[in-house]
Amino acid sequence: MSTETSAEFRMPSLGADMTEGTVVEWLVGPGDRVRRGDVVAVVDTEKAAIDVECFEDGVVDRLLVQQGQKVAVGTPLALIGSARTEHPEPATAPATLAPEPAGPRIGSPLARKRAEQAGIDLATIPGSGPGGLITRADVENAVPPATARPPSVRARISPYARRLATERGIDPATLTASSPNGTVHARDLPPPASAAPPAPAPTFPPPPEIPLTLPPEPPGVAQRRATAALMARSKREIPHYYLSQDIDMGRALDWLRGHNRAIPVTARVLPAAVLLRAVALAARAVPELNGHWVDDGFRPGDGVHLGVAVSVRGGGLVVPVVRDADTLGLDELMAAVRGAAERARGARLRSSEAGGATLTVTNLGELGVDTVHGVIHPPQVALVGFGAVRRRPWADDTENTDTDHGSVTVRPVVTATLSADHRATDGATGARLLHHIARCLHRPEEL
Q1: DSSP string for residues in 202-253
Q2: Tell me: the pLDDT tens digits for 356-385?
Q3: CA distance 162 to 49
Q4: Are 34 and 59 in contact (CB under 8 A)?
Q5: Euclidean distance between CA atoms 156 and 184, whole angstroms
Q6: Which single residue of 18, 50, 291, 357 could bond 301 by disulfide (Cβ 3.0 to 4.6 Å)?
Q7: pTM given for the model
């Protein structure tokens, strides 16, 4: 026999402003084995559809929330058996006990469905689940190689389009995207079946039909609404102060060109990654600006978790999180940011990337902006912004022995700005952060 304790897998908080979420899709079922980091469900928030990861190893006991159900943050979603102790069974069962019923005991609805698809008799499959239950993995192992199905690939679909498809009973896998990036939007769904017109009154002619149906909400409106609420809260609650500093990027860009010549083209590092690396190191050096303002007090972060602002097609803003950014080398940081940005634009963020940022960075230089005065994302206490790197006149502070004056040259310069919460710090602390950022960019070999 076996004894097992089950842990509750709960609806995670995927952002400071998230209070509830909708379970759009379960990717596991009862009896399925899961490992820490496996994606087990897709949760729809007001901002994006998030791939939710499991935080422990075990076997799925029971799903507590159905697909399409909206629940509050912290609500138990499933039970996962994480501790299992095996005890030897007696060699011979007592004669008074009824025999076990013949045939397999199925633990996962997904196992039955997959067995039907592959034409496999479940009685021929040994079960590896609790008490010999047959799991989906057991069925997959029994599928002959010639009929094994390819890895499951979910169609890329916007959260709003996924919600409409669920309401209309449409399988998202049957939809075709019209956008160049392959993402299915609401406009790609077939129109809903129209309701039959009401019967005319017996003594009066029917009134003229007046269309009362409102057009579907355009994609991105719900996300824009959530962002607006968060920014309104920020300006209402946080006393912002702002600082800026111009930084010579000459040495950093020269060093970056040499670095990129030594690595493959597909792995080359963009200047934005150099700026992020400088911010991560500066946040570690000035921890007073790396954390959250909670319950009328500052709580330092448990690491430097950088939120990277990403604008999505169709409007809106998503801020994926790069965790422990100060521990990543420049190449690792570039790969992490590139992957997170791609998933953010495809509305397929992972739950580990969807919340918990201790400091946010926004870079609008590629759009030609010179200076960014950002709005802090509560409960964070600071936001760093970067504009475009432009060639500008730059006064060299080194004295010239002939003229006893410094020289003026043309250098690539970027303007770094800081928006900070005056409840947590003052201008002197903010100036230290900008000073550390400039120091890192002036010594790129230390990045």
Answers
A1: SSSPPPPP---PPPPPPTTHHHHHHHHHHHHHHHHH--EEEEEEEEE-HHHH
A2: 999 999 999 888 999 999 999 999 999 999
A3: 9
A4: yes
A5: 6
A6: 291
A7: 0.61
With beta carbons less than 8 A apart as the criterion, state whether 223 and 316 touch: yes
Tell me if 271 sits within 8 A of 389, measured CB to CB.
yes
Q: Which domains does the chain have, with CATH numbers?
A: 2-147 (2.40.50.100), 159-188 (no CATH), 232-446 (3.30.559.10)
pLDDT at 437 over 60: yes
User: 45-66: string of b/e by CB count within 10 Å (b at 16+)?
Assistant: bbbbbbbbbbbeebbbbebbbe
CA atoms within 13 A on the CB side of 295: 1
- Report d(CA 85, CA 62) in Å as an integer: 19
Helix intervals (H) in 32-174: 109-118, 136-142, 159-168
pLDDT of residue 292: 96
**Residue 2, φ and ψ in degrees, nearest 5:** -135, 150
205 Cβ neighbours under 8 A, 6+ residues apart: none
| Residue 247 bridge partners (DSSP) | 414
DSSP 327-348: GS-HHHHHHHHHHHHHHHHTTE
Tell me the per-residue pLDDT of 155-171, one tens digit each, with 9 for 90 and over. 577 777 777 888 888 88
How far is the C-alpha of 149 from the C-alpha of 146, rounded, in Å?
9
- What H or E segment, with its residue span, contains residue 194? none
Q: Report how far residue 392's alpha carbon sits from residue 410's, in angstroms, rounded to the nearest whole number.
A: 5
- CA 329 vs. chain centroid, Å, equals 21
